[in-house]
From TrEMBL:
Protein's UniProt name: Acyl-CoA synthetase (NDP forming)/GNAT superfamily N-acetyltransferase
Top-level taxon in the UniProt lineage: Bacteria
Secretion signal, residue range per the UniProt entry: none
Pfam family of the protein (one): CoA_binding_2
InterPro entries named among the record's database cross-references: Acyl_CoA_acyltransferase, ATP_grasp_subdomain_1, CoA-bd, GNAT_dom, Ligase_CoA_dom, NAD(P)-bd_dom_sf, Succ_CoA_lig_flav_dom, Succinyl-CoA_synth-like
Gene3D superfamilies: 3.40.630.30, ATP-grasp fold, A domain, ATP-grasp fold, B domain, NAD(P)-binding Rossmann-like Domain, Succinyl-CoA synthetase domains
Any one GO molecular-function label of the UniProt entry: ATP binding
Domain N-acetyltransferase: 21-172
Length: 897
C-alpha cells in the first residue's frame, strides 16, 4: 500500500439489494477482522479461494493485506456497519502493466454484488496506476468467481490448465464496460429507493398536537391523502394525532418503518437519524432546514453508516400517487393529481408551482421528489427510478446543482430515448464569475457548460416555469413534428401576424404553399380569405369551413405542424359557430401536432378535451406555443439521429503525455503555464498539427531562427514569452510580418527592452498563409469535467464571443455540432465563393483536444488561438496550456454522492 492509497477517503456504494456498503483501502488495524473474514468461511469456500482448506491461509492473507506499504499492491475492503464483508486486492509483482487479482466475500453474502463492486473499484484504481491487465487463477469448479469476471463487461480470456483456469482481464474502459456498470448501478439504485418511494410503513417525527407545524401538516397530508400502508406519529407528549397513533420514539413503534419523515428542529435531526438507523429504518425524508456544518455531517454519517437513503434536508417532501399506495409526504397546499409526469426539484416553491400546474392541466404526477439540499438522493437517482417504474412517460426537473454531471449525462441520454426530459435552466447568469485567465476561461461560463450538458443528453431546457409547463402540455398531448415547418391559420389578421413573428423568433419556418394547396384552401374558405402563410380565414369563417381548412393542411406533406390563432367574434356568436370546436371535434392526437392560440384565454396554457378523449393544448400567448413547438422539433431531430460514438484516434501516446504532466508537476507543485517546448511536446503526444517554430533567447538566435523558418517571402512572426503570459496581443508582445535580419533584430530589441526582467525568450515562426482564424480550447470544470470550446479566433475572440461548447469526451455528433454551431460556420463551408476548409482536419484537432483533456485531469486550461484553417490543412499557430495538481477521479465509478 502506498501513502496515496491510505489517504484516499472511503466511498459508499450500493449492493444489488439496495443496501449500502463502504469501500475503502485496507488499514493495518483491519488485520483481526480480515483474519476473521477467512476463518468464518466454510471449508469448501476456503478451498475455492486458496485451493486448499487450510486455516493457516486466513492469517497469511490478513498479513499480506495489512503489511506495510509497497509499490504495485492495492487492497480494498467492503464493510457495513463496521463489519468487513469482502476484500479485493491486486499485486503487480514488481511489473508495470499487469497485476494478479484476488477476491473474497464473506459467507452468506454471495450473490449481492459485493465482489463485483469491489472489483469495479479495483479496476478504477488500477487504471490510475497504469495497470492495463488483471490476471486471476481459479479452480474450474469455482463458477461464482468465473461468472463475476465474465459479467464485468470487460474483455476476458480463459486458459484451462488441468483443474485450474487462468483468466486474463483487459482493463480498457469502453462503452460496453460503462454500460454494464450502469446496468448494475441502476438495479441497485432502484432497489435502494423502494423503501423511500414505495414504503409499507411511514413514521413522522415532529408532528405537533397543535395546528401550524410543518410536521403536523405532513402527517395530515399522509393521512388525508389515503396512504395505504401503516402510518405512525412520533411525539413523546401524545398518543394520537389527527387520528394517527403516536409513540414516544422510533424504537417504541410496533414495527420498524421503511421511511421516516423528519420535521424536527435542526439540532435534533442527527440524533433522530441515528436512532432511525439503529432501528433498521431504510430511508429518511428530512424537511428540516438550517442545519449547520456539524449537524449536516452527522446526518449524512448516520445515513451512510446505517445504509439509509436520504431526501433533503430543507425540502418539501416526496409523493407517489400510485393508487395502490397514495403516498403524499409533502406539506404542499393540495394533493397532486395522479398522472404520468415524474417531477424532481431542489426548490420547494418551484415544486409547488409544478405540482399545481400539472394537476390543473390534467397531466398529473407519478412521483414527486423535492430534493432540497440534496445530500444524497439526486436527479440521477430519480431518472433511474422513472425509467423502470412503468408509470412515468414525462420527466420535469429543476436542478440547481449536479453532483456527478457525467454520470447524469449518460443516464439522461438513455432515459431521453424513452421519454421526454424537460428542465428549467436555472442559474443562467454568472455575475460572480472569476476573472478569466485565458480565452478559454473567458468563454467558458457556467451557462454554456450547463447548456452543453443538456444538449448532449437530449434534455429539453426551458427558461421559466411557465415555458416548462407550456412545453410539457404539448409533449404530453401531441406527436413530435418531423421538422420546423409550421402552417398558421387565424380568423384575425393581427393575431396571425403576432403568431408568425413568434414562430420566426423561435426558429420555426413558415413555408409558402403550393398552388394546388392554395386552390384547395380557397375552395373551402369564405371569399376574401388570404391563403398565404399565415392563412387569414377572416372573421366570416364558419366552424365547418375552419375544420375543412385544418384537415387539408394536416394532409399537406409540406408542413410539420398546424398552429391556430383564434379570437372570439360577434360573427361566430351570431351564427352559433364555435371555432374552437372545429379543432376539438376531431381526434386530439393527429399525425402532426396541432395547437391553439387564444389571446383572450385567462390562463397561460390549458388542455382542451377532444372528441376522442385526447386533449389539445391552448395558449394565451403565441410565443409560448411557438417555443413549445420549437422544443418539440429539436427533440424529434435529436431522436432521429443515432447515438454518437467517440471515434478511435491513431497516433496518440497517452503514456508519454502523462509522463510529461507528472514531470512538470513534480518540478512545479503548484502548477502553472507550460513553456513553449513542453507545450509542443504535449501536443505532439496527440498528433495535433502545429506551425513550425523555434525558441530563441538571444538576438543572434532569433536571426538564425528567422533565416531557417522564413515563411511567405521569408517573413516571420516573433512572440515574446515569460511564465504566465497569456494575452500576448493585449500586452503588445507580438511582432508580425518581419522580413530580413534588420527587422528581426529590431523586433527582438524592442521586446527585450519593454519586457526587461520578464521575458525569458521569444518564439519565432514563419508567417502563415492566409486562412480562417479559429479558436479551440478546453477548460476543466471542477463539477462538469472538461469542456471543449470552439469558435472564431484571433484577437477579437472574446469581444465577438462566437463560441460553441460541448463536454468531453466528444462523439462524432458532438464535434459536428461544435463546428456548425458558431455564427462563423458558413466561412468554414465555403461562403463568399471561397472553398471549404479542411473540415476533417478541423474535426481531428477537436477530437484530439478532447482526448487530451480526458486523459489528463491535471490539464486545467488549453487555449489554441489562432487555429488556422485553409482548404489544405488545419494548423495550430499558438497554443497555451496550464496544468494544476489534481487527483484523477473516475466519473463513472459507482458510489453515492
Amino acid at each position: 500500500m502506498t501513502d496515496d492509497v491510505l489517504n484516499r477517503p472511503p466511498v459508499h456504494a450500493l449492493l444489488t439489494d439496495g443496501t449500502t456498503v463502504c469501500i475503502r483501502p485496507v488499514l493495518p488495524g483491519d488485520h483481526d477482522q480480515l483474519e476473521g473474514l477467512y476463518e468464518e468461511m466454510s471449508p469448501e469456500n476456503l478451498r475455492l479461494r486458496f485451493f486448499a482448506a487450510s486455516r493457516r491461509s486466513a492469517t497469511a492473507a490478513a498479513d499480506r493485506a495489512c503489511a506495510s506499504a509497497r509499490p504495485g499492491y492495492r487492497a480494498l475492503l467492503a464493510e457495513t456497519k463496521g463489519q468487513v464483508i469482502g476484500l479485493a486486492e491486486y499485486d503487480t509483482g514488481g511489473g508495470r502493466d499487469s497485476a494478479e487479482i484476488s477476491v473474497a466475500v464473506a459467507d452468506g453474502l454471495h450473490h449481492r454484488g459485493v465482489g463485483t463492486l469491489l472489483v469495479e473499484h479495483l479496476v478504477s484504481a488500477a487504471r490510475s496506476d497504469g495497470v492495463t491487465t488483471f490476471t486471476a487463477d481459479a479452480l474450474s469448479e469455482n463458477r461464482e468467481v468465473l461468472r463475476l469476471f465474465t459479467d464485468l463487461g470487460l474483455d476476458v480470456t480463459r486458459r484451462f490448465e488441468g483443474a485450474e483456469v487462468r483468466c486474463t482481464i483487459a482493463l480498457d474502459e469502453d462503452d460496453a464496460y460503462l454500460t454494464a456498470v450502469e446496468a448494475r448501478g441502476r438495479a441497485a439504485d432502484v432497489a435502494s429507493l423502494v423503501p423511500l418511494l414505495r414504503p409499507k410503513a411511514v413514521a413522522v417525527v415532529g408532528a405537533g398536537r397543535k395546528p401550524g407545524s410543518v410536521g403536523r401538516a405532513l402527517l395530515h397530508h399522509l393521512h388525508a391523502g389515503g396512504y395505504t400502508g401503516r402510518l405512525f406519529a412520533v411525539n413523546p407528549s401524545a398518543t394520537n394525532i389527527l387520528g394517527v397513533p403516536s409513540y414516544p420514539s422510533i424504537t417504541s413503534l410496533p414495527r420498524t418503518p421503511d421511511l421516516v419523515v423528519i420535521a424536527a428542529p435542526a439540532p435534533a435531526v442527527p440524533t433522530v437519524a441515528e436512532e432511525c438507523g439503529k432501528a433498521g429504518v431504510r430511508a429518511l425524508v428530512v424537511v428540516s432546514a438550517d442545519l449547520d456544518g456539524t449537524q449536516a455531517q452527522a446526518l449524512l454519517t448516520a445515513c451512510r453508516t446505517h445504509g439509509m437513503r436520504l431526501v433533503g434536508p430543507n425540502c418539501l417532501g416526496i409523493s407517489n400517487t400510485d393508487p395502490d399506495l397514495g403516498l403524499d409526504a409533502t406539506f404542499a397546499a393540495g394533493h397532486p393529481k395522479p398522472g404520468r409526469a415524474g417531477v424532481a426539484v431542489q426548490s420547494g416553491g418551484v415544486g409547488i408551482a409544478l405540482l399545481d400546474g400539472l394537476s390543473r392541466l390534467g397531466i398529473g404526477v407519478s412521483t414527486f421528489a423535492s430534493l432540497g439540499d440534496k445530500y444524497d438522493v439526486s436527479g440521477n437517482d430519480m431518472l433511474q427510478w422513472w425509467e423502470s417504474d412503468g408509470r412515468t412517460d414525462l420527466v420535469l426537473l429543476h436542478l440547481e446543482s449536479f453532483g456527478n454531471p457525467r454520470a447524469f449525462s449518460r443516464t439522461a441520454r438513455r432515459v431521453t430515448r424513452r421519454m421526454p426530459v424537460l428542465t428549467v435552466d436555472a442559474g443562467r447568469t454568472d455575475a460572480g464569475r472569476r476573472a478569466a485567465a485565458s480565452h478559454t476561461a473567458a468563454a467558458a461560463t457556467r451557462t454554456m457548460t450547463r447548456q452543453a450538458l443538456f444538449t448532449q443528453a437530449g434534455i429539453t431546457a426551458t427558461h421559466s416555469i411557465g415555458e416548462l409547463l407550456a412545453t410539457a402540455a404539448l409533449f404530453h398531448t401531441q406527436p413530435h413534428p418531423a421538422g420546423t415547418r409550421v402552417a398558421i391559420v387565424t380568423n384575425a389578421g393581427g393575431a396571425g401576424v403576432l403568431t408568425a413573428d413568434a414562430c420566426a423568433e423561435a426558429g420555426l419556418v413558415l413555408p409558402q404553399f403550393t398552388p394546388g394547396l392554395v386552390v384547395d384552401l380557397l375552395a373551402v374558405l369564405p371569399s376574401g380569405a388570404a391563403v398565404g402563410n399565415p392563412v387569414d380565414a377572416t372573421a366570416a369563417v364558419s366552424e365547418d369551413q375552419l375544420r375543412e381548412c385544418v384537415d387539408r393542411l394536416m394532409a399537406y406533406p409540406g408542413i410539420d405542424a398546424v398552429l391556430l390563432a383564434l379570437v372570439p367574434t360577434a360573427v361566430a356568436a351570431a351564427t352559433g359557430d364555435d371555432l374552437v370546436r372545429a379543432l376539438t371535434a376531431g381526434p386530439g392526437r393527429q399525425a402532426r401536432p396541432v395547437a391553439l392560440v387564444r389571446l383572450e384565454q385567462d390562463v397561460a396554457v390549458s388542455l382542451l378535451p377532444a372528441a376522442d378523449g385526447g386533449t389539445i393544448p391552448s395558449y394565451a400567448e403565441p410565443q409560448a406555443a411557438a417555443r413549445a413547438l420549437a422544443h418539440a422539433a429539436r427533440r424529434a431531430a435529436w431522436l432521429a439521429r443515432p447515438a454518437g460514438t467517440v471515434p478511435a484516434l491513431v497516433g496518440v501516446d497517452t503514456g508519454r503525455a502523462r509522463q510529461i504532466t507528472e514531470t512538470y508537476l513534480a518540478a512545479h507543485p503548484d502548477g502553472g503555464w507550460l513553456d513553449p517546448l513542453i507545450c509542443a511536446d504535449l501536443l505532439a503526444c496527440y498528433d495535433i498539427p502545429q506551425l513550425p517554430w523555434a525558441w530563441a533567447d538571444t538576438e543572434g538566435d532569433a536571426v538564425l531562427a528567422a533565416e531557417r523558418l522564413g515563411g511567405v517571402d521569408g517573413r516571420v512572426v516573433m512572440k515574446a514569452h515569460w511564465p504566465g503570459l497569456v494575452h500576448k496581443s493585449e500586452q503588445h508582445a507580438v511582432h508580425l510580418d518581419l522580413r530580413g535580419e534588420d527587422q528581426v533584430r529590431a523586433a527582438y530589441q524592442d521586446l527585450e527592452s519593454r519586457f526587461a526582467g520578464l521575458m525569458t525568450g521569444v518564439v519565432v515562426q514563419p508567417l502563415a498563409e492566409r486562412g480562417t482564424e479559429l479558436f479551440a480550447g478546453v477548460v476543466q470544470d471542477d463539477v462538469f469535467g472538461p469542456l471543449v470550446l470552439f469558435g472564431l479566433g484571433g484577437t477579437a475572440t472574446e469581444v465577438l464571443a462566437d463560441h460553441a461548447a460541448r463536454l468531453a469526451p466528444l462523439t462524432d455528433h458532438d464535434v459536428h455540432d461544435l463546428i456548425t454551431a458558431p455564427r462563423c460556420a458558413p466561412l468554414l463551408f465555403g461562403a463568399r465563393g471561397n472553398g471549404p476548409v479542411d473540415l476533417e482536419g478541423l474535426e481531428q484537432v477537436l477530437l484530439r483536444l478532447s482526448r487530451m483533456a480526458e486523459d489528463l485531469p491535471q490539464l486545467a486550461e488549453a487555449d489554441f488561438n489562432p487555429v488556422l484553417a485553409t482548404p489544405g490543412q488545419v494548423t495550430v499557430l499558438d497554443a497555451r496550456i496550464r496544468l494544476l495538481p489534481r487527483r484523477p477521479q473516475d466519473p463513472y465509478l459507482r458510489r453515492l454522492r
